[in-house]
Specification:
- By secondary structure, this protein is α+β, with helices and mostly antiparallel strands.
- The protein has a single domain, classed as Reverse transcriptase/Diguanylate cyclase domain (Alpha-Beta Plaits).
- The protein is built from 8 helices and 5 strands; from the N terminus they run E-H-E-E-H-E-H-E-H-H-H-H-H.
- Strands 2-3-1-4-5 form a 5-stranded mixed sheet.
- Strand 2 and strand 3 form a beta hairpin.
- The longest helix is centred in the N-terminal third of the chain and has 17 residues.
Length: about 220
Amino acid sequence: MTVRSVLTGDLIRSTHLSDAGLNDARQTALSAATQLSTWEKGLLGAQPEFFRGDSWQVLLMRPGFFLRAAILMRAKLRSANDAWDTRIAVGIGEVSRIDRNRTSLSSGEAFLLSGQALDRMGVNTRLVVATPNGLWRTLDPLAQMCSAIMDDWTSKQAEIASLALAPAPSMQSEIAERLGISQQAVSKALSAAKVGAVLRACSVVEGLSWNHVRLM
């Protein structure tokens, strides 16, 4: 069986944003989603999009990248404005139909699981993972722990972390040069934000054997 991961999210407290603020937050999220396409050719299965105003959806053809992608989505929003954030529900399963131009018009188990999980999410939860028939059940608590770590990130830590999240991340010296700060400041920020632990969790998830199980 071939599985995919679907990330469905909505912007938090979007009703408190002005029209301009909502548009800026949407563009930031879309920019983050588009950045995922630079990680690996063909990683995005369809064009990321917003629907129903503040809801968004991303389809990943490599399911293991869901954790790294979810953390990036939150980090990019938080780094742009510390009042911005998003809830994210990840569904992992088969995909029966892909609409390349509108992700939300695609369908299949992964989409169903993702949408249902988002509907069930509490207001204080930021990341959950839903899998078929209890498979990979440890992924949800692992993802929630990583998300809880980043709840304490400052906007600057989130900005630095977002540059370190790529599968082939920039060197600390490159991040420092890009942001106009010292390499020591980058190192201290990554350490204080416990980014290393998050990255190790991402690597573990990506190393799982995703397509060698029966989804029955």
